[in-house]
Amino acid sequence: xxxNRSADPRREGSDAxxxxxxxxxxxxxxxxxxxxxxxxxxxVADLPAGGRALRDSKHPADAQVxxxxxxxxxxxxxxxxxxx
Length: 84
Hints:
The protein is α+β, with helices and mostly antiparallel strands. The protein has a domain at 24-80. It has helices spanning 9-19, 69-80, and strands spanning 29-31, 42-46, 52-56, 65-67. Strand 3 and strand 4 form a beta hairpin. The termini are far apart.
């Protein structure tokens, strides 16, 4: 049976994030060279379907934040402009 309902855009975004769901231990996390090695930093990992994931280096087992490629680009551009 086929539904005539239009797709919910929130669900489509959720589906895109689900494609990027990977166990934390399967990702290769790295830290920016700008951190200075003080341990207070954000770690970043490339996601298989594009985009990046972020996590706190002091609490690596806690939540990670997946960002689609467009959101990552917007974040980096804002950081470069010091608009954060």
